[in-house]
Structures are given as C-alpha cells and as structure tokens.
C-alpha cells in the first residue's frame, strides 16, 4: 500500500512565505533612458577608430585644437594602441563614481554599501573581459540636447555639424544624475556652413583613467523606491561605444532598505551583480545589436550580426536563440534538441513582448531571474554568462560559472552486467533524433511497453520540455503539485510547495520564511520537531522524512522536510546523522531506517556531495573539502541494500513507497512482456545498431517514476 499518512503538521511550523525580495524594474527604467553614442560618420573616429581608413578623417577634437592631432604619426600610434587593446581581452575595469549630489550617508551606511558594491564589481570583473578602452574613458554629449539645429546639406563643409546652440543647455545626465563635465567630450558650434572654424561651447574633459565601464552609484529615496517597498536598487545604462557596448550607467540604491537588518551583505552583493549584468548588456534593448566575433581577434572588426535572435517556440514561449546560449541550454538540460534557446520571462513585459529576465519556470535560481531569492540559492550560471558572451563585447570566464542545479539533466553510467535488466523510457528528443537518423519509430519504440533497451550512458531529465506549462504541473524532482512540506531543491532549506506570479501556476518548494535554514544552528529550538531527531548546523541539509520516536505523541508522522547532518564519502555518496544516532550510509535515491525511530529518511539523488560550489553562507569557502571529507572512511564502500526497507524513486515532491508484492508483480509482468518482444528485438538488432542503439532483453524494471523520463545515448 502506498504510504500516505494524514497527520496534520500545520501547527508545528511558522508561516510559509518564501524568502524573496523585490522584483527587478530594469526594463521599465531602461525604456525611459536615451542612450548616447558617439556621433556617426567622421565623429566616430575621434576616440574609437574602427579601421586605418577612418583615422585620417578630420575629427571634432582636431577642429577644436588642431595642434593636438595635426600629425599623422600621432593618429596612427593612437590607432595601433587601440587595435592592440582590442586584440587582447582583459578583465573589465569598472570604476565606481559617487556623485557629489548624493545625500550624505552615515559611516555605517557608506561602509555597508561600498563593501557590497566593491565585492560585486570584483566578482563581475573576474567573469568578463573586454577589449579595453585605450585612453581615458570620455563620454559623449547628446548633440540633440545642446544643439538647436544641424547643418543638413551634404554639400556643405560642416555637414551634420551643429550650427547653433540651445541657450538653456546645462548638463548631460544619466538616470537623473548629472554627469561631471570632466567625464565628457567637448562640444562646439559652426555658425556658418562653409567655415570650418568652430566656437567651443564646452572644452573636452580629462576623462576617467583605467576605466572600461563607469558606474554612477546614487543613494536616495526616489519615487520608484517609495512605490516598491522591497526594492533595493535599480539601474540603466546611458552611454555606449560605436559598437553598442555600454560604457556608463547609473545604479540607484534605495535609501530606506539600507538601514534594514533583514537585508544582509549578501542581498546587496547579489542585487548589485544582477543590476550590473543588466547595464553591461543583459537587456532586451540590446538584443538587436548582438554580434558574432568568434573568428575575429578585434572587437568591432570582421564581426557580423547574429540577426534575429528572438523567436517564439511551438508552445508560445519567447526564447533567446544565439549560438553560445543554445549550446549552454543543450548541455544544461542534456538535450539533443538542435534549436534549444533560453526562455525569457513572460511577465511584466512591454508592448514588444520581451523581457530582460530568464523564465523562472525553466531557469529558477539564476542570477538573472526576475525575482531574486535567498542569496545562498542564487547562482551565477553558465547560461547567463553565455548570453553575455553572445553580445560580442565580452570574453567570458566560464570556469567561474556556478552550478545551476535547477532542471539539470543528469548523466549516469550503467554497468555492462546490468544492461540486460534495464528498462528505459525514451524522451521525445531522442525519438526525433532516431527519426532523423533514419530509424523508424515503430522499429525501436514498442507498443506494449514504452521501452528501448540500449547503450550504456543514460540521461535523466525532461530535455527541451523541462519547465513547460505542459509538464510543470506534474509532480517531479523539481516541481510539486499540492501544499506539501518538503525541501528546497538545493536542500539547504526546508520548503513548502508554493507558486508565485512568475511561475504561471506551477508550484515549487520555496524556503519557509522562518527557521527554514538547516545550516543555521540558531534555528535549533528546543521542543520543536524534537520527535523527528532534527539537527541544525553548518553541515546539516534538508531530507524528506517521516521519522518519529516511538514514544512521541504521534506514532506516525507526516512526510516533510527535516534537517539532519550529512558528510560526504564520495561523489553523490554520503552519510547522515539523526539526533542520538550513529553516522548511517544514505544511498542516493533510496531510503534508510534509523535505529530508535519509526519511519524512513529518503536520500536525494544527484543533489548532495556532487556540486563543489554549493555551500551555505556560513561557510564561504568552496565545498571541495566537504567532498573530500570522509573519502577515506568509505570511498569504495558498496552500500548494502536492505530488502526490508521500502525504496521509492526519490521524487521528493511525490513520494511513493512500493511494497515488495507490487515489485514482484511488476517484475513478472515486465519479464513476460520482454520475452514476448525478444524475437522482434533480435530481428531489428542490426537496424537499431546502425543508429548506435543496442537492444537487450529486460527482466526487471527499475522502480523509477515515469515522470522522470530517460534519454539513452550510446557510448562512442
């Protein structure tokens, strides 16, 4: 009989609000900003020469002071320096500038803010490299702001130059913040269309040295901050180079939250990184400017546009289709789908239907999701970095990408001796791959059982269908279907099955608002769940369990998330410890009994002791040490299966325990079905082999939920 106790546990826990903070309003803000770029044509070569042919054209700076750029060797030397800088990407230099009009901050506020900003900037600089700005960074003035009219006659000497200035021109701004004149290029007017001598309005500034991107940080209580009480910051870029790469932007830090202790240092670091990625190029406004420079050593030279990179798939999901992003998605989902783009959020979109965030159903936990969650659960993922790589402006350090566990397709190797007893469910991606390879579907996909007995390497996951509205409403290893209590998918927190506006009605386990962190020793309160044997601490993780002491008030506890200690004995191998128990092997994907307790602890598969970069915030170092701890204890230990212990397929959100009688019946039926197909399998063996798929007989199916389909790929 399936195990489904119905004991209520609502009174044991505090309210279930998820640990999230304010949504991002980047698209709303960026839409209101006019981005200033260098003037086209002859003006473009003043500081950003794109080729040797452009360098000898008279430019604005030389007209303002001909002595500065009168000789050709000087211009060529400048060009050589620029080309050299373009050919060697180096870590991006982000300069922080706090405007003089910023409200005064207390020493504590300033220290808190700048420590977080500095950490975020250093993190981004370690991830992105650019062809550096060759000289001091000098921003551009908007000719439409200072100029009353422009000479439009192409036959005149001063074609497209300013003929008369506006009397009320005062300054350039970026998101309401005044840009200092020393950061700006000069400007001039040409009163007569045929006289090349200008009247200088503003001299050229000194620029900002050693800078590839200038970030103005402005702390204030703005109308937007007051309208969104949980908003920490927002940003926009306002200046770009000739190739469209953002050069400067403003980040507004909301003043009130800066004084609230509930927002930690990590909250601010993650927020600043999120907004920095936006202003550096993760923006729907810049999608049309994406370029492919993969075969060029120079940015802006021999690059070509990716063309149309946004499209809607057959399910109505808007996706970003650019080369590196497609490869990253295929790798992440372990899919052979040849045209798998990264989905964009479908909420809070403008009239164009586009968003500058990832779809939460598919890329939950990404740094570029619209709703930021508990900092320890946010990942700077390889798909986000791939999107920045495909702008054509950056060289990305993918080795620093963090594991995005959500939706990850898992690969497992099957021992040759066990291949004959493997029952494999084929995902539709593989189905189509077989068709493309010339193998008829009816040849290798039987009608009696959905099986294909093949290869030695299998991929677990939903492939290109992961997170779709057609599949997310089914209970699986990532999604849940009711109001159950369980574990967040990273197992650092207890969770409750909830949805939010960005999940389109799909439900996932979100951390509880109170006492959900298993790694927080302070959450261990006497008298709370004492019968379940919970232990809180830096090495504790969340496990699905219904453990209870025999003498506890409830003889049968409900299945829910509980906190127990764990230690690694190998990759995807670990032991657990319950209060007053010894260390026990917890075989991944199975369950264990604990002496002195009734019930079971379910052991998550491919979640613990696998990702070296997953660690609670109490332990900032990489988890490599954790992976190695205990390796000598039982690194080669063969876990013994207890035949008397039910072993459900661990889909923690839909737990099913199968009895021994059900196993025997299912095994017998599977054996009979397999033998009934054996003769057919022999006949089609060669045809399947030509598609690199090997067929074997099955005599005992693994008890894996059919909601976790398996895609088989033969070993090369």
Question: How does this model look, in words?
Answer:
This protein is of the alpha+beta class and 716 residues long. The protein has 4 domains: 20-280, Elastase, domain 1; 291-400, Leishmanolysin , domain 2 (Leishmanolysin, domain 2, Alpha-Beta Complex), CATH 3.90.132.10; 410-467 and 661-713, no CATH class; 477-650, no CATH class. Helix content is 21%, strand content 18%. The protein is built from 16 helices and 32 strands. The strands form 12 sheets. A 4-stranded mixed sheet has the order 3-11-13-12. Strand 7 and strand 8 form a beta hairpin. Helix 9 (323-333) packs antiparallel against helix 10. The longest helix is centred in the C-terminal third of the chain and has 24 residues, at 660-683. The chain is elongated, with a radius of gyration of 30 Å. The model is unreliable at 1-19, 41-86, 295-300, 412-428, 438-459 and 619-716 (pLDDT under 50).
- Poorly predicted segments: 1-19, 41-86, 295-300, 412-428, 438-459, 619-716
Structural class: alpha+beta
Counted beta strands: 32
CATH class of the largest domain, named: Alpha Beta
**Largest sheet, spatial ordering of strands:** 3-11-13-12
Helix content: 10-25%
For the termini, the CA-CA separation is: 43 Å
């Amino acid at each position: 009989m399936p195990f489904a106790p119905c004991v209520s546990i609502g009174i044991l826990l505090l309210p279930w609000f998820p640990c999230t903070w304010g949504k991002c309003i980047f698209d709303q803000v960026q839409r209101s900003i006019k981005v200033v770029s260098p003037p086209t044509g002859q003006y473009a070569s003043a500081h950003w020469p794109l080729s040797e042919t452009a360098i000898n054209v008279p430019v604005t700076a030389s007209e303002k002071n001909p002595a500065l750029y009168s000789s050709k060797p000087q211009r060529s030397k400048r060009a050589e320096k620029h080309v050299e800088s373009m050919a060697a990407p180096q870590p991006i230099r982000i300069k922080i500038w706090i405007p003089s009009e910023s409200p005064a901050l207390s020493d504590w506020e300033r220290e808190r803010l700048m420590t977080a900003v500095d950490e975020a900037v250093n993190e981004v600089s370690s991830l992105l490299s650019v062809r550096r700005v060759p000289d001091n960074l000098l921003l551009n003035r908007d000719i439409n702001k200072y100029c009353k009219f422009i000479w439009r006659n192409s036959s005149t000497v001063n074609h497209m130059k300013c003929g008369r200035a506006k009397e009320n021109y005062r300054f350039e701004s970026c998101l309401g913040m005044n840009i200092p004149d020393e950061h700006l290029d000069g400007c001039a007017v040409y009163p007569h269309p045929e006289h090349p001598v200008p009247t200088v309005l503003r001299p050229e500034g000194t620029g900002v040295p050693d800078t590839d991107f200038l970030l103005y940080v402005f702390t204030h209580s703005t109308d937007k901050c007051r309208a969104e009480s949980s908003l920490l910051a927002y940003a926009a870029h306002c200046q770009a180079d000739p190739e469209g790469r953002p050069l400067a932007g403003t980040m507004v830090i909301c003043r009130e939250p800066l004084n609230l202790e509930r927002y930690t240092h990590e909250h601010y670091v993650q927020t600043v990184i999120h907004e920095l990625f936006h202003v550096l190029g993760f923006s729907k406004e810049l999608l049309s400017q994406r370029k492919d420079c993969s075969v060029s050593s120079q940015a802006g030279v021999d690059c070509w546009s990716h063309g149309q990179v946004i499209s809607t798939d057959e399910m109505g999901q808007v996706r970003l289709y650019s080369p590196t992003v497609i490869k990253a998605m295929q790798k992440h989902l372990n899919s052979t789908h040849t045209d798998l783009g990264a989905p964009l959020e479908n909420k809070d979109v403008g009239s164009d239907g586009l968003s500058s965030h990832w779809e939460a159903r598919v890329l939950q936990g990404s740094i570029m999701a619209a709703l930021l969650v508990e900092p320890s659960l946010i990942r700077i993922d390889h798909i986000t970095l791939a999107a920045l790589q495909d702008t054509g402006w950056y060289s990305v350090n993918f080795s620093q990408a963090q594991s995005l566990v959500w939706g990850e397709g898992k690969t497992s190797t099957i021992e040759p001796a066990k291949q004959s007893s493997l029952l494999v469910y084929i995902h539709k991606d593989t189905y189509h791959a077989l068709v493309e390879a010339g193998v008829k579907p009816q040849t290798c996909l039987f009608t009696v059982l959905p099986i294909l007995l093949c290869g030695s390497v299998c991929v677990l996951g939903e492939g290109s269908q992961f997170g779709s509205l057609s599949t997310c409403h089914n209970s699986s290893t990532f999604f849940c279907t009711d109001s159950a209590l369980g574990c967040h998918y990273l197992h650092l927190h207890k969770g409750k099955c909830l949805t939010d506006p960005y999940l389109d009605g799909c439900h996932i386990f979100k951390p509880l608002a109170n006492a959900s962190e298993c790694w927080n020793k302070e959450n261990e309160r006497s008298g709370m769940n004492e019968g379940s044997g919970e232990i809180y601490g830096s090495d504790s993780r969340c496990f699905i369990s219904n453990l209870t002491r025999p003498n506890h008030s409830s003889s049968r506890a409900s299945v829910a998330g509980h906190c127990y200690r764990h230690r690694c004995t190998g990759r995807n191998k670990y032991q657990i410890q319950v209060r007053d128990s010894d260390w026990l092997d917890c075989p991944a994907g199975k369950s264990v009994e604990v002496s002195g307790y009734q019930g079971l602890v379910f052991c998550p598969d491919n979640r613990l002791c696998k990702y070296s970069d997953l660690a609670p915030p109490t332990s900032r170092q990489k988890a490599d040490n954790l992976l190695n701890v205990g390796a000598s204890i039982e690194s080669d230990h063969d876990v013994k299966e207890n035949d008397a212990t039910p072993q459900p397929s661990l889909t923690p959100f839909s737990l099913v325990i199968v009895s021994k009688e059900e196993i025997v019946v299912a095994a017998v039926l599977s054996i009979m079905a397999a033998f009934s197909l054996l003769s057919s399998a022999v006949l089609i063996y060669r045809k399947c082999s030509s598609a690199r798929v090997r067929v074997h007989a099955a005599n005992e199916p693994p008890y894996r939920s059919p909601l976790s389909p398996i895609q088989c790929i033969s070993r090369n």
